[in-house]
Design goal:
Blueprint: E1 13-30, H1 37-47, E2 61-68, E3 72-80, E4 92-107, H2 111-125, E5 138-142, E6 151-157
Antiparallel strand pairs: 1-3, 1-4, 2-3, 2-5, 4-6, 5-6
């Protein structure tokens, strides 16, 4: 199991394997027109409900798995839990099985650059993104009050 630690946004890439048990809220909207507003909305709404979730690993780490095509996207705001139980009303609990991911460290302000760099690195290493089959990309935010820039990570599932 890979331990997630808050690190400086270095744009360094690596491959990790991780399984996630997540509980949170989601929003579905038109893509790309609904973004990033929809993501910000679900994350903001979720922030006030984090204390309702049981068995939380770390309530200061926000996980945002997402799925999209050229028409619409579903974006989640979640916390990782040890075990899924008593999912609060209006939320969803789910497990993403152990998956190999390409990972990059960036920040909430450099997430677009992070995506550009991770896909360039994947092309260079000849890694292929895994689409849908029990996996999805995940954005991870290390919440830090009273700062404008927070450490973030992007995970892209690999074949």
């Amino acid at each position: 199991m890979y331990p997630f630690h808050k690190t400086i946004a270095t744009f360094e890439c690596e491959v990790i394997t991780k399984k996630f048990h997540l509980v949170g809220q989601s929003i579905t909207t038109n893509y790309p027109g609904g973004f990033p507003d929809a993501a910000i909305k679900v994350q903001t709404e979720f922030e006030s409900r984090r204390d309702e979730i049981k068995n939380v690993v770390n309530k200061e780490i926000l996980y945002s798995p997402h799925m999209c095509n050229e028409i619409f996207a579903t974006y989640f705001a979640c916390l990782e839990v040890e075990e899924i139980e008593d999912v609060p009303e209006g939320m969803t609990g789910f497990t993403l099985p152990a998956t190999k991911y390409a990972k990059i460290s960036c920040s909430n302000n450099t997430i677009d650059e992070g995506y550009t760099k991770i896909f360039a690195w994947m092309d260079e290493k000849e890694y292929v993104q895994k689409w849908f089959h029990y996996s999805c990309p995940i954005e991870i935010y290390y919440l830090d009050e009273n700062v404008d820039e927070e450490v973030a990570e992007i995970l892209i599932p690999l074949e």
